[in-house]
Amino acid sequence: MTLFLRSTGALRWWLTVHGKGGKQRLVPATREMMMELSRYRQHLGLSALPSPNENTALVLPIGATASNERAETCAPLTRAAFHTIVKGVFAGAATRLRQRDDAAGSRADLLEKAYAHWLRHSAGSHMADQKIDLRMVRDNLGHASLTTTSIYLHVDDDRRHQETEEKHRVDW
């Protein structure tokens, strides 16, 4: 997956995501994400925000900076490198969880099995849990069908019953 940013001129930034099968989609870049991206870019010696028509990859290979090579021509972080970094973060979190809580072994074991694609599932579940319109979640994840996106719905049975009771009425 290669990520690039573009601005629509209305203080709205979009990620152009090149995913599986060469499919391309636009994903909204939130203000929170843009703040973190700005911090990352400044750490690399780049301007806080991309300039118009800049083609710098969103995430550069480890060790790349604006000072040691031209960031605009630098290839993005590879999928394998990203996977390795994410696995390392999950492993570190599992280690710290075990150190902090002896009873958390099974949760730590689960963290050690985590991989980069789990982040995608977490994002989809979080968007659905926050009641973002499922069509928007579908578009953000690049699914062709709402059926695929619906796996991210984790509706609590009590809430489902209550909302059905309140909103699906004949009102006699």
TrEMBL record:
<dbReference type="GO" id="GO:0003677">
    <property type="term" value="F:DNA binding"/>
</dbReference>
<dbReference type="InterPro" id="IPR002104">
    <property type="entry name" value="Integrase_catalytic"/>
</dbReference>
<dbReference type="InterPro" id="IPR013762">
    <property type="entry name" value="Integrase-like_cat_sf"/>
</dbReference>
<dbReference type="GO" id="GO:0006310">
    <property type="term" value="P:DNA recombination"/>
</dbReference>
<dbReference type="InterPro" id="IPR011010">
    <property type="entry name" value="DNA_brk_join_enz"/>
</dbReference>
<keyword id="KW-0233">DNA recombination</keyword>
<feature type="domain" description="Tyr recombinase">
    <location>
        <begin position="1"/>
        <end position="165"/>
    </location>
</feature>
<dbReference type="GO" id="GO:0005737">
    <property type="term" value="C:cytoplasm"/>
</dbReference>
<keyword id="KW-0229">DNA integration</keyword>
<dbReference type="GO" id="GO:0015074">
    <property type="term" value="P:DNA integration"/>
</dbReference>
<dbReference type="InterPro" id="IPR050090">
    <property type="entry name" value="Tyrosine_recombinase_XerCD"/>
</dbReference>
<protein>
    <submittedName>
        <fullName>Integrase family protein</fullName>
    </submittedName>
</protein>
<dbReference type="Pfam" id="PF00589">
    <property type="entry name" value="Phage_integrase"/>
</dbReference>
